[in-house]
Design a protein that fits this description.
- The chain is α+β, with helices and mostly antiparallel strands and about 220 residues long.
- It has a three-stranded antiparallel β-sheet. Strands 2-6-3 form a three-stranded mixed β-sheet, with no helix packed on it.
- The longest helix has about 80 residues.
- The radius of gyration is 53 Å and the shape is rod-shaped.
- The termini are far apart.
Length: about 220
């Protein structure tokens, strides 16, 4: 009858394994090659420096390109602003010329309208104005008055307004003197009569008013 227990069997198997196994390769630890290691580190450091220089050069190039682009944009914006200013000046010049032509038409209509208003039918002993002639002249006067109002509305829509002159002190900025009057009942340098209307385009003089000024 054997007396070995499972524990004794395990110990015997372990002892046999230790006897038969060569552990020399486990204790032989290879020493690192320091020269190769330092060489590799130096090479890596050189590569990092080269990459850093290249990256910095790339950033400098991008920065120069951005500054150049900004300068070009500023120059382009300046040119566009100048072009817009020139176009606006041309537009104002064309508008001013057109409005002055309208004012010339206005003067002619106004003169004709005033002439018709001053018309008086002949009513003498041997001669009378025909009723149809009087009616025709009146209708023409009404038509010219409507046309004048229409033209005034068109001018006002384009920011053109007549200068208020009569009874006002003479203003060299908006008026020009073409006649002198003497009216003791009025103050000196007051406008007695408006001989040709003046107009403002917004707050700028479009055409000077021609006036008769009182001089005491």
């Amino acid at each position: 009858m054997t007396t070995d227990t499972p524990q004794d069997e395990l110990l015997a198997a372990l002892h046999q394994y230790l006897q038969e196994t060569d552990f020399a390769h486990l204790t032989a630890i290879e020493q690192p090659d320091l020269t190769a290691l330092f060489s590799d580190l130096a090479g890596l450091k050189t590569e990092v420096k080269a990459e850093s220089r290249q990256f910095k050069a790339t950033l400098d190039s991008l920065s120069d390109a951005v500054e150049t682009l900004k300068a070009d944009n500023r120059a382009l914006a300046d040119e566009l602003a100048k072009a817009n200013e020139r176009l606006e000046q041309q537009r104002r010049g064309v508008e001013r010329a057109m409005l002055l032509e309208w004012l010339d038409i206005y003067d002619r209509l106004d003169a004709g309208h005033r002439a018709l208003q001053n018309y008086r039918p002949v009513d003498g002993l041997f001669r009378h104005s025909k009723k149809q002639d009087v009616g025709f002249i009146a209708s023409v006067g009404e038509g010219q008055e409507i046309t004048l109002k229409r033209l005034e509305q068109m001018l006002q829509r384009r920011r053109v307004f007549a200068i208020d002159c009569v009874g006002q002190p003479f203003d060299a900025r908006t008026m020009t003197t073409v006649a002198i009057g003497n009216d003791p009942s009025q103050a000196n340098a007051v406008v007695l009569e408006e001989l040709r209307k003046g107009f403002l385009l917004e707050d700028q003089v479009l055409r000077l008013a021609e006036v008769k000024v009182n001089k005491l």
